[in-house]
Amino acid sequence: MKKSVTFALGLALTAGLAACGQQGETSKPAEDAAAPAKDVGAMAMLAETRHGKGTGSVTAIDTAAGEVTLDHGAIAELDWPAMTMGFAAPQKLLEGLAVGDRVSFELDWNGKAGTITRIEKMK
To answer: Which N-terminal residues, if any, form the signal peptide (predicted)?
Structure first.
């Protein structure tokens, strides 16, 4: 009797473990397997640099850090509404600018940060 119970328990345990192993090993549908490739493609699209043009006012300048903050109007090329935002800028482009200056500018946006490529005082 004791051997029968031990055997039955062992058999049940083996069957249970086998079922768990099969559940974990079940293959995913083909569309799930392709998902990482789709995600990588989406990330690559987000990483593409986009170019935009705008106008605004200088609200802060940090020439040592190569940064300028602009209160700018909408930028159609980037689908941006008007906002105040900081951008990286080569120090050479910041020379002669002052807080309060009205400017026209161009920038490159990589999906995370923008870099001013041209900035000029407006008359």
So the answer is: 1-18
Per-residue confidence band for 42, with pLDDT thresholds at 50, 70 and 90: very low
For residues 54 and 22, state if they share a domain. Answer: no
SS3 content of the chain, % helix, strand, coil (to 5): 40, 35, 25
Does residue 83 surpass a pLDDT of 70? yes
> Residues 99, 103, 108, 113: is their CA dihedral positive or negative?
positive
Q: CATH number, domain at 61? A: 2.40.50.320
Report the C-alpha gap between 29 and 26 in whole angstroms: 9
Residues 54 and 105 in one domain: yes
Say if CB 46 and CB 103 are below 8 A apart: no
